[in-house]
């Protein structure tokens, strides 16, 4: 199936793409900053999640749940916890 | 780089800009959601002004359009909120108007936005694939049919399904009090826009109305919750499989390796054929959930077991270290 019909890009389109790419770069930076600022809340949410999967259970499939024993709970690695890549 | 990981982004936080690319009619405004910087493909929220009117025309790449509010009309049809268009490259749409304004999502999939005035299809157009459907009026909600599935309360309407890649575009909703206690990632790109409502993910917090994400493969998301309900539009670029797990700290690289390892468990023959091209080298990717299931190849070496590569050699042994020539030392007497 044809994805793109061959065509030439005008100067205006190229300039527009350049501007939009630059703005997206800024938007991405802002997202990373906002998500880093959310880290303390996220740590709390993660702790609550790890508690819930031990008591209420982990959704294996649809509403089928399995209670995860403490021995299976993962430990946080030393590396930085990133959520935006 | 194609498109970066944009998550979360709320388009309500930014103003509309005038859309003035050559070829497009006046009266269009947009908010860029994400852009592929290699080829110009992009996702946008678009507002058509009251009285907007465009002549018949086509695009050089396929275009998806979903009407969120207001309506568009042609000479003989009216396209209300909930209408979804999938327009293949080169297929000419009739003249369209927005007498009372309209807000829509627009996706240009493989190249930058383009509009060429024409009341005829391009010679390469594949009109048989043109899809126009009102998802609010003509379709029923169904449970998700991928396994493992999302929890009860997440429903979908599939708007388009690509047989070749299994990419699909879908409306989804989460009912009030929806929750799902697992972390998911996919082998595909996933993109979504909240038409209405707020939902929560453990990594990113709340995503409200106007919230958007473009998420490359293998990135963790979830657990999930939604207090009052959410209506959203989602898209993937290939098959969506829910790789569920409960380790919040895994990286996309680890997730990808686990996904590969799982394919080996699910379809061992196919995996070996694809990965090893008939060369039966017993390498196994690492699954962080089953760390004890080691790499048989490494095990074979560590224990000095000769092994068959299936490539015509009866047995095979690697040398642990390359042989080095001993330096001749001249001893002086």
Verbal overview:
The complex is a heterodimer of chains A (85) and B (333). With 85 residues, chain A is mainly alpha-helical. Chain A is 52% helix and 8% strand. Chain A has a two-stranded antiparallel sheet with strand order 1-2. Chain B is 11% helix and 35% strand. In chain B, a hairpin with a 3-residue loop joins strand 21 (199-201) and strand 22. Chain B is built from four helices and 26 strands. Chain B is mainly beta and 333 residues long. In chain B, the strands form seven sheets. Chain B has a seven-stranded antiparallel β-sheet with strand order 1-23-20-25-17-16-15, with no helix packed on it. Chains A and B meet through helix 1, helix 2 and strand 1 of A and strand 1 and strand 3 of B.
Spatial strand sequence of the major β-sheet of chain A: 1-2
Enumerate the strands of the largest sheet of chain B in spatial order, edge to edge or round the barrel.
1-23-20-25-17-16-15
The sequence of SSEs of chain A as H and E is HHEE
Q: What does the overall shape of chain A look like?
A: elongated
Strand content of chain A: 5-15%
SSE map:
The complex is a heterodimer of chains A (85) and B (333).
Chain A: H1 11-37, H2 39-55, E1 58-61, E2 64-66
Antiparallel strand pairs in A: 1-2
Chain B: E1 6-10, E2 17-18, E3 28-35, E4 42-48, E5 52-54, E6 57-58, E7 63-70, E8 72-73, E9 78-79, E10 83-87, E11 96-98, E12 102-108, E13 116-117, E14 131-134, H1 135-138, E15 142-143, E16 154-161, E17 168-174, E18 178-180, E19 183-185, E20 190-197, E21 199-201, E22 205-207, E23 211-215, E24 224-226, E25 230-236, E26 243-245, H2 252-266, H3 268-276, H4 296-302
Antiparallel strand pairs in B: 1-23, 2-3, 3-4, 4-12, 5-11, 6-13, 7-10, 7-12, 8-9, 10-14, 15-16, 16-17, 17-25, 18-24, 19-26, 20-23, 20-25, 21-22, 21-24
